[in-house]
Each structure stands twice: as C-alpha cells, then as structure tokens.
Recover the amino acids of this structure.
C-alpha cells in the first residue's frame, strides 16, 4: 500500500492542479461574459511614503469629479464612482453584515443589472444626498424574511436610516464564488457624506461604447487623470487603469502559481512513487526467483516473464492512479468548499492521469522485469 | 526414426573465478523413442549437469547435441523455450510446485506458454490429473499435500503438454521407500503404456531397477551403459 502512496499523491496532485486551473479559466471566462468585455476599472495606485510603497489602493486620490471628467471622453458610455464598505445593517428586529456600495445611477447600466421592483436612484437623489437604498436579493431575504415587499421600509446603515426604494434582480454567485446579491446600493454622494466622510472614492467603473475601442479609451483615461492629478513624468501614476481582461489575467496568474506548485509536487511524487514501484517489484522478483526458474523450465520465453512482471507493475501503479483520481477529486472538492475556488475536473485529464500512472509503472517496472527475464533458470530453481 | 536425444563428445566446464571445473568430459549417448534410461553415478560425476544440458536449461562447452534431429546449438533462446514447453517435461527432487497455487493451476502452468486456448487449458489439465488418478487433489494447495502427492502433481504437470521426453533428476530423493516405489511404478507404466521416453537420475539401485537401461557416470564420463534385464514393474 505504502508503495502506491507516491503514485496516489502524484495523480491526486495532477487532478487538483487541473481542477483548479480549469475552474479558474472557466470562472474568468464567465466573469468576462457577465461583466462585459468593455468594462474598465480605475483604482487608486500605490503611493510612496518615506520610501515604502503601499500597493494599489493605498493612495486615495480618485474623486467623483475625476469620474465626471472621464465621462466627457470620446468612446466612454458611462461612469460610476464606487464607494464600498462592509458594515452591519439593521431593519426591524433583523440585522445583517453586508456590503454597502455607494454608486451612481449609471451603475445599473454599467453592470447590466436592472431592478426587480421599485426603482433605482436617479441623479436628483445623488444631488440631494438622499437617504435611499436599493437592496440585493440576499439582503432582502435576510432583513425582511417572509415579507412581500421591503419597499418603503427603513434600513439603518451605521446608525443612519435609509429608505428602501427598490430591489435588484438576482445575479447569483460571482465566478469566484461570491454572493453578488449580498449588497446594498446607495447614492455615492450619500455614502461619502454620511458613511465614510471622505472626499475620495474606492474606484471608478467605466464602460466604453465599444469593446474594440477599449485600449484607446484606457489610454485616454490615463492621460486625462495624469493631467488632473498633476503627475510629472518620472513620478509614477497614483492610479491604475485596468480592463477586465487584465483583471482576469491577474486571477489566471494566481491559478498558474498554484498550478506550477502542484505540478512540481505531482512530478516529485510520481518519481518517488515510481521508485517505490520499482522497489516492490525487485523484492517480488527476488521472492519469486524459484517460480521464475520453474516457469522458464516449463517453457516460458524471456518475453513472457518480462510481460508478467511489467503487467504487475502497471497494475500496481494503475490502481494507485485510480485511487489518486478519487483522492484528487475529493481534494478539488475541498478546495472549492474551503477556499471558495471554483474547480472542475475535465474527464480527458482523468484518463490521462491514470494513463500516466501506468506509464510510470512501465518505466520503473521495466528494470525489475528485465532482471527477472534475464535470470538463469538453473540458478533460479536452486534459489532458496 | 530420429533418436530423441543424441549427444556426441559433450563437454561442460564451469569457471569459478580462476578455477576451471570439468563437469562433463566428453559424453556420447543416444536415447531412442520409448526408452526408459536411468543415470547413476557418484556425487559430482556430472549427472545433473548432463540433465540440464539435455533439458536445454544450460548450454555445453563443447560437443554436439541433437534433439529429435535438430541441432540445439543452432536454436535461439525462444526456440529452446518453445521446445521445453511442447516437447520436454521436468520432474524435480523438490517438486517445485508454485506456492499459494492449486494443484490444478500448477498442472495448467505449461499450457500457459503453449498455444492452447484458455478454455481448453483447465480441461486438458483435469484430464491429465484423472489419468494419474489424482483429480481429487485439484483444489489442494501445495502445502496441503504429502510429498508423494506433490510429486504426482509435478509429474502431471510434466506430462500435460504431451512431451517427447521426461527429465527427472532424483524424483524420489525426497520420498520414503514406499512412496518412491509408487512413483517409480507410475513412471514404468507411463513408459510401457503411453510410450513416453524417460531419462531419470538416481543414486539408488532399487530405483534404477525400474528402468530398461542403466547408464553410469564417473568424473564426467560414461563408464558403463547396459540393458537392465531385471526390470522391476512394481
Ligand atoms: N553452477 C556450477 N558452478 C560451478 N561448478 C558447478 C556448478 N554446477 C555443478 N558444478 C560442478 O560440476 C560437477 C558436477 O556437478 P553435478 O551437479 O552435475 O553432479 P551430480 O552428478 O549431479 O552430483 P549429485 O549426485 O551430488 O547431484 C561438480 O564438481 C560440481 O561441483
Ligand atoms: Mg545432481
């Protein structure tokens, strides 16, 4: 059993690797499909404070005015500032920890996310810094269980009562396994004025009119913001302009790091497993020396002996491979449950992994089998 | 008809490091179809060496060996294996049955390497065991049988491919006198009734007495070769 362990771990690692990689690729494709390929996100860049760079988002430099300026650029369809915070909200006797996002009325259009009931807030709500809120479906079920409609009710966000004016249509889980309906949308002006007290926003969401123009729009935004933020060339930009492709690539590269890591685990385990198989086969050849001698005496050609031991090595490692697939599938399940990382196991890879395990059996079983076939039958028969 | 075994000037020299040991020093022997030959001789006289060469498990250092008219020195390893499988049967002093294997499976073993369809193997093996009156042992494992029973299974295994020659090196060496006589009676019967050619090595005159012809070895040479006119039947 122990000898199979290497093969089991190796194949399991291959399966988990592929499951994570495939899951990541599929989720990236899904997020591109759901968010649209013409989405651009502007985030604060890193700032240098006494030589220490803070990483993206460290600088709080983006303002709603930046958003208004971007909206004037050619090729830009809509812009929405995003102010996000995680907080406890209360309605009636229920309270719930959720995401509150301060956004513009255009957000509904940018995310292609219509209301299910009531209405979305409009420009006058933004100007009036109105205490109005649109609830995601998860928040509705958590705060107003069993109630037909929450519209008109009041929700306390950080002690401030907001009136519910609409509910959002359900989006379900994001590609990364997040519940997208667990959110409350309020006007960004209200979020800044009444909740964060800051003049800056967390990000700006921009939608270009055409996906094909995304690169030009992106560079136009970069030039505009650099000028607005008075960045002098050698100085780094205090913001980051990224499109969804880039974000998807970032997610993909995280997956890739894990893939490389697991692939090396797989390779090492398969080699260790192969050596284990070789070892047990060598022991088996020694233990069965007399049997081999007898088989030769009754007419087994060397090739039959070779075949017999190779078959055993292959069987041994294939069983290890099949167990490895099961363990790997469980591992992938664990990854998606614990780490909320979507996984998917493509069937051809299962066959490939088991096939590879068998190949390890052939490779490492060949030497012991060769040794068995090369035994001298007289000495083998005399062996004690 | 071609003799089964025809050796001329057969020599075998073992080299152990610097030392050279002459095990066979020029043996001439011809065994025809249907013969029953016993080989006798003191320990170290080359009997086993001779049997191994005749059984194509080893090759001679000199001289010639023709088996059923074919020059063995010209055969490939696979051709020799094929002859062992279809034309030769071995019986050993220590039976050499496979452990954790039933008597029936042991008897089937040589069929595995001959061109028999899988379905027929068990049938042929059972028929052979029946002929030797040991079909009741079919499901017994090696460690569940007496020495005599094990040797009978081994003989069934040697016979299962319908060989031209049975080679038995001290087949009764591990058996008591009564069982030895039973096994030898069986060999005599196989030779008489089924015309099977037998070449057998023994130290005991009582055992050699079952053969039709007795050959004596000394120092790697044949020193006497005579017809046994007092052949024992039982
Ligand atoms: N593999 C070997 N390597 C070296 N010398 C060997 C080998 N096998 C046999 N001999 C030597 O060859 C000679 C003949 O041995 P062999 O086994 O043929 O004798 P034997 O007649 O069968 O003896 P016994 O009656 O004791 O079985 C002996 O001197 C033996 O030591
Ligand atoms: Mg001997």
């Amino acid at each position: 059993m122990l000898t199979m362990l290497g093969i089991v771990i190796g194949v399991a690692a291959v399966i988990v690797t592929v499951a994570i990689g495939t899951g990541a690729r599929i989720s990236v494709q899904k997020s591109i499909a759901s968010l649209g390929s013409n989405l651009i996100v502007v985030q604060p860049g890193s700032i240098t404070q006494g030589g220490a760079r803070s990483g993206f988002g460290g600088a709080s430099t983006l303002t709603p005015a930046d958003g208004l300026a971007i909206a004037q650029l050619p090729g830009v369809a809509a812009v929405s500032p995003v102010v996000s915070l995680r907080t406890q909200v209360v309605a009636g006797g229920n309270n719930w920890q959720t995401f509150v996002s301060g956004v513009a009325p255009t957000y509904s259009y940018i995310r292609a996310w219509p209301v299910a009931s009531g209405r979305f807030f409009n420009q006058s709500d933004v100007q009036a810094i109105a205490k109005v809120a649109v609830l995601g479906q998860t928040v509705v079920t958590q705060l107003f269980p069993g109630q037909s409609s929450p519209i008109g009710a009041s929700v306390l966000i950080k002690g401030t009562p907001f009136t519910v004016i609409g509910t959002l249509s359900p989006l379900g889980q994001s590609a990364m396994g997040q519940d997208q309906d667990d959110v409350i949308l309020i006007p960004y002006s209200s979020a800044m004025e009444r909740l964060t007290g800051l003049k800056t926003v967390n990000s700006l969401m921009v939608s270009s009119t055409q996906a094909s123009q995304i690169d030009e729009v992106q560079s136009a935004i970069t030039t505009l913001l650099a000028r607005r933020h008075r960045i002098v060339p050698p100085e780094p930009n205090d913001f980051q302009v990224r499109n969804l492709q880039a974000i998807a690539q970032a997610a993909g590269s995280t997956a890739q790091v894990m893939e490389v890591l697991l692939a090396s685990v797989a390779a090492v385990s398969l080699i260790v497993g192969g050596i284990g198989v070789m070892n047990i086969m060598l022991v088996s050849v020694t233990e069965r020396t007399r049997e081999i001698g007898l088989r030769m005496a009754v007419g087994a050609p060397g090739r039959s002996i070779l075949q017999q031991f190779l078959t055993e090595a292959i069987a041994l490692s294939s069983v290890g491979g099949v167990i490895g697939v099961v363990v790997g599938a469980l591992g992938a399940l664990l990854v998606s449950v614990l780490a909320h990382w979507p996984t998917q196991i493509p069937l051809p890879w299962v066959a490939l992994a088991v096939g590879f395990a068998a190949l390890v059996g052939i490779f490492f079983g060949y030497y012991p089998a060769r040794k068995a076939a090369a035994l001298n039958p007289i000495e083998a028969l005399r062996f004690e | 008809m071609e003799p089964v075994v025809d050796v001329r000037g057969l020599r075998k020299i073992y080299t152990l490091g610097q030392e050279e040991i002459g095990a066979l020093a020029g043996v001439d022997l011809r065994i025809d179809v249907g013969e029953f030959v016993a080989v006798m001789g003191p320990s170290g006289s080359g009997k086993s060496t001779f049997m191994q060469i005749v059984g194509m498990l080893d090759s001679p250092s000199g001289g010639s060996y023709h088996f059923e008219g074919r020059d063995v020195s010209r055969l490939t390893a696979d051709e020799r294996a094929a002859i062992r499988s279809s034309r030769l049967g071995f019986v050993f002093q220590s039976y050499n049955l496979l452990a954790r294997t039933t008597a029936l499976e042991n008897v089937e073993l040589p069929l595995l390497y001959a061109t028999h369809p899988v379905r027929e193997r068990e049938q042929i093996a059972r028929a052979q065991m029946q002929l030797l009156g040991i079909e009741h042992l079919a499901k017994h494992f090696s460690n569940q049988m007496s020495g005599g029973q094990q040797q009978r299974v081994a003989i069934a295994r040697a016979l299962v491919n319908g060989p031209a020659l049975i080679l038995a090196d001290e087949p009764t060496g591990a058996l008591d006198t009564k069982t030895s006589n039973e096994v030898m009676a069986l060999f005599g019967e196989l030779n008489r009734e089924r015309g099977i050619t037998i070449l057998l090595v023994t130290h005991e005159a009582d055992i050699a007495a079952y053969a039709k012809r007795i050959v004596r070895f000394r120092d790697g040479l044949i020193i006497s070769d005579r017809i046994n006119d007092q052949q024992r039947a039982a």
User: Anything to note?
Assistant: Chain B is about 35% helix and 30% strand. Chain B touches chain A at residues 52, 55, 57-58, 77-78, 81-86, 88, 90, 92, 96, 98-99, 109-110, 112-114, 157, 161 (CB under 8 Å). The mean pLDDT of chain B is 94.
